[in-house]
Specification:
Layout (H helix, E strand, L loop, with lengths): L9 E7 L1 E6 L4 E4 L4 E4 L7 E6 L5 E6 L6
Length: 69
């Protein structure tokens, strides 16, 4: 799997449509309206995301400060 890291730390909230996120370890997560997902993979191999079905996806994004861990 070839993915990209998230450009920033962020919460995403799925408002409409459905998506799948696949981590570099091949773990897949299906998200639908009402789902929230914290993206923190700002380095490394990242993830792949794809829209499922023919319906457009609408998301809300909340940008978070950079992690200093």
């Amino acid at each position: 799997m070839s993915g990209d890291p998230s450009p920033i730390r962020m919460w995403i909230f799925i408002l409409e449509g459905e998506m799948q996120f696949e981590a570099s370890n091949r773990e897949a997560l299906h998200v639908a309206p009402g789902s929230a997902l914290l993206l923190e993979d700002t380095d490394g191999r990242g993830h792949v995301s794809r829209v499922l079905g023919s319906r457009p996806v609408t998301i809300a994004v909340v940008r978070l400060p950079a992690s200093h861990a």
